[in-house]
Design goal:
Elements lengths: L12 H20 L3 E2 L5 E3 H8 L4 H6 L2 E3 L5 E4 L4 H10 L9 E10 L11 E10 L4 H18 L4 E7 L5 H14 L7 H9 L10 H8 L10 H17 L4 E2 L13 E7 L7 E7 L3 H4 L7 E7 H10 L12 E6 L1 H16 L4 E3 L6 H11 L3 E6 H5 L2 E6 L4 E6 L3 H10 L4
Parallel strand pairs: 1-5, 7-8, 12-13, 12-14
Antiparallel strand pairs: 2-4, 3-4, 5-6, 6-11, 7-9, 9-10, 10-11, 14-15, 15-16
Helix pairs in contact: 1-5, 1-11, 5-9
The structure holds histidyl-adenosine monophosphate.
Length: about 425
């Protein structure tokens, strides 16, 4: 039997309300801060990701789903959302609009990762990008937005980790110091970190292995190497966060898994979570648009993994109202009753009453069992005998009470019950 590919899953009806809850909140919070929705294709030119994530990052080196289409073009399933948004910003000349342009997206991403709770090969993110303005106020505002989003979902136990990773001027000086420091510890490093030392030294700070953590804690801090402009920017971000009343923790070891960031980086992490701890990740990417062929354009944003938010909601026992069941089930007995039931279903749906019409020719018992398992409040039973006197039986499924009512009056009766909340 076929199964969903490893690292992917079906979003079953019972989970749909969690998804709707999260995505509705993302839309509301986006609107609250003046963001507009933008959807990009599910696949893009593969180079868009390899150029922006930069070689040496896991996303670019190991995780992309790349394929060549029948026209010979090398494409990649969307690995992340920031580069496609920047591509769209350039392609549609949004640099001509008043800046910053604020955009959000809710979509799937594909990364060939080792699947575990909170880490999938197809996952979904809500992302927010503010493009075209270098004001550190925007860095503070997106952090504020990300926190408000989690609060709006009822997620309150998280910490906001903040760092600056400098710019093209000061970061290389820091990386030199980092390499010098780590070279003294090379023999103690885990095999992955030995590779990182050669390919992507900043990521050394992020290693989760205990032995490497000890070394990382004593490593030189990037904040001691920031140039005056980056230092001033970082101070302003912290000042604006304080003005907005946003709590944060400085973390000199915070670097991000994608390579387009400069200056501000941040993550919102769950406390005592059982699964992956990073709920939100983001930061500034002032060089990305230029790297993609545009003019130098500062930008800042973040994204949050929907699966991780839902896991968190379930962990904390946040109850979400279940998807409403159809109001009534229409059961019928006999050929003439089936025809009357078909006509009635059309009439009730036209009146805005959600109904499920029985199919086939099952026994009444089997039809009522189906009504029960669907959770409908009422069953409408049409039998030959009732039909001959133009009546139907309305059964209250919970109270198990039945009343005979004229077929012509059933819409009015159900609408009245609907308006009285008896569903
Ligand atoms: P990211 O940290 O790679 O950043 O992903 C953002 C969020 O997506 C993570 O914090 C996590 O919640 C979720 N996530 C990432 N990978 C997976 C996975 N394999 N399974 C489940 N959830 C996952 C970015 O993608 C950047 N584009 C964020 C950004 C926007 N930076 C600036 N603007």
């Amino acid at each position: 039997m076929y199964k969903a590919p490893r690292g992917t899953f079906d979003i079953l009806p019972e989970d749909q309300e969690y998804w709707k809850y999260v995505t509705d909140s993302a839309i509301s919070v986006g609107q609250l801060y003046g963001y507009q929705p933008l959807e990009t294709p599910i696949f893009e030119d593969a180079q868009l990701f390899s150029r922006s994530a930069a070689e040496g990052t896991d996303v670019a080196d190991k995780e992309m789903y790349i394929f060549t289409d029948r026209g010979g073009q090398k494409l990649a399933l969307k690995a992340e959302g920031t580069a496609p948004i920047c591509r769209a910003y350039l392609e549609h000349g949004m640099f001509n609009l008043p800046q910053p342009v604020k955009l959000y997206y809710i979509t799937s991403f594909f990364r060939y990762e080792r699947p575990q709770a909170g880490r999938y090969r197809q996952h979904h993110q809500c992302g927010f990008e503010s493009i075209g303005d270098a004001d550190p106020l925007l860095d503070a505002e997106v952090i504020d937005l990300s926190q408000r989003f989690l609060y709006s979902l009822g997620i309150t136990e998280f910490s906001t980790q903040l760092n600056s990773i400098g710019c093209q001027l000061c970061q290389p000086i820091y990386i030199k110091a980092l390499i010098e420091y780590y070279s003294q510890h090379e023999t103690e490093l885990c095999p992955d970190c030995k590779v990182r030392l050669l390919k992507n030294p900043l990521r050394l700070l992020d290693c989760k292995k205990r032995i490497c953590q000890k070394i990382a804690n004593a490593a030189p801090k990037i904040t001691d190497y920031l140039c005056p402009e980056c230092q001033a920017h970082f101070q302003s971000v912290q000042h604006y966060l304080t003005v907005l009343g946003i709590p944060f923790t400085l973390n000199h070891r915070l670097v991000r898994g994608l390579d387009y960031y400069s200056r501000t980086v941040f993550e919102l992490e769950t406390l005592n979570g059982k699964s992956q701890s990073a709920l939100v990740g983001g930061g500034r990417y002032d060089n990305l648009i230029e790297q993609l062929g545009g003019r130098p354009t500062p930008a800042v944003g973040f994204a949050t993994g929907i699966e991780r938010l839902i896991l968190k909601l379930k962990e904390t026992g946040e109850t979400i109202k279940p998807h409403p069941a159809p109001m009534a089930f229409i059961a019928h007995l006999g050929d003439a009753a089936k025809l009357a039931a078909i006509k009635l279903s059309a009439r009730l749906r036209a009146a805005g009453i959600p109904v499920v019409l029985a199919t086939g020719a099952k026994s009444l018992k089997a039809q009522l069992r189906q009504s029960n398992s669907l959770g409908t409040s009422y069953a409408i039973i049409i039998g030959e005998q009732e039909l001959s006197s133009a009546n139907i039986i309305l059964r209250d499924m919970k109270a198990k009470e039945q009343t005979l009512i004229p077929l012509a009056n059933i819409d009015k009766a159900l609408l009245q019950k609907q308006s009285q909340g008896q569903v």
